[in-house]
Structure formats: structure tokens, C-alpha cells
């Protein structure tokens, strides 16, 4: 029976740790850009105007209904086939594997995040909004002190799952030569043929990253829960029964 090679596991783990910044860069960039685009999609999705409303619906349907791998390949391999793209300034971005990976992940996670935020906004009790209006809040104040905190609180449990899913999806970036944790693990396997040990180390790193994401979003949920006790009401205001 073969023993465990702890020295190999240590060396592999340390080598994979060197790729963690690339993985974290992919995740943070995708979530940031995707979150911004998701807010725009939510505004369009909730709009009463037909054009932005249906644009958002079609966009969300397309990106939720097709595999992320195909979206990544279409952006990295497909867009470059058009000479107009190669002659434009976009080519300076789209020719880079890392940029294509970030854009693909951001476009995909934006579709899921938009639906999470839309559901959270629609779940806000109407009484809380009416209470804010009764206190004389402007639309911006209402959004800042009631709608946004309450919607974020409702959205965080589902969004934490989406953040973890996009973290695991960064493994696909290795298919377009972005050497994050999974890509480096494949390189090690090609030279050592020790699949089990290498992928166990990679899995452990992903577990640690996802644990930290869960803890960070859990802390944010805890901090926002205190705001929900009297969301947006001025200090000293008496809360009406049933509001």
C-alpha cells in the first residue's frame, strides 16, 4: 500500500497558492462588473417601457439558458473572426484571454444577479415603502434608506450561492490559457501524472476561498439585518401598527 507523500502535497499546495491571486482577480472583477451591469438590467427589467423591458428579458433568458463555457468560447474564439472587431479598439481587450474570461463571467453572472435583485425588490413589503413616503422621503432617500438595504438583505442568501458558483466557474478560464488554480493543477498533472493528490489540493483551495466568501456575505447579512428593524425611518419616528 502506497503511503502519502506529504512533501509532494506541500509543494503542490504552495504552487497552487501562487495561482490564487489570478483566481481571486477573476472572481472579484467578474462580480464587480457583473453587479454593476445587473443593476442596469434590473432597472430595465422593472421599467414600464417596452424596449428596455424586453431587452432585459431576452438578455437574461439567453445568458441563463446557455452554458457559460459556450459563452466563453464564443467571445474568445468567435468574436476574433470578424475583421471589424480586429480593426477596432475593442481588439486590444478581446485578444487577451484574461479580459475575455472576466467579460464572459461578468456577462453571465449579471443575468443571474439581476433576477436575484429583482426578486428581492419585489419582496419588499409595500407598507415599508408607504411609511417612507408618508415621512416625506424623496425617491433617492427612499431608495437609499429603505429599498436598497432591504433588497440587499433579501438578496444576500441567494447572491452568496451565485458568488460561489462563479468562483467555481473560474476553472473554465484554463481552457483559454488563463492559468488560475485549475489551470496550474492541470500543468502539474501533465508533468507528474498524480491526478488525485493535485486535484485534492486544488479542491481544498476552492473550499477555503468559498468559505471566506460565505463568511463575508454572512457578516454583511448580519450587519444589514439590524437596519431592517426600522429601515429608513427617521430617528425618533414612531412606527405605526401594521406598517
From TrEMBL:
One of its GO terms (biological process) is amino acid transport. The chain crosses the membrane at residues 20-46, 58-78, 98-117, 196-217. It is found in: Cell inner membrane; Cell membrane. It is a multi-pass membrane protein. Pfam families: BPD_transp_1. InterPro entries: AA_ABC_transptr_permease_3TM, ArtM/GltK/GlnP/TcyL/YhdX-like, MetI-like, MetI-like_sf. Keywords: Cell inner membrane, Cell membrane, Membrane, Transmembrane, Transmembrane helix, Transport. Residues 20-217 form the ABC transmembrane type-1 domain. Signal peptide: none annotated. GO terms for molecular function: transmembrane transporter activity. CDD domains: TM_PBP2. It comes from the Bacteria. One of its GO terms (cellular component) is ATP-binding cassette (ABC) transporter complex. Belongs to the binding-protein-dependent transport system permease family. HisMQ subfamily. This is Amino acid ABC transporter membrane protein 2 (PAAT family). It comes from Paracandidimonas soli. The lineage of its organism: Bacteria, Pseudomonadati, Pseudomonadota, Betaproteobacteria, Burkholderiales.
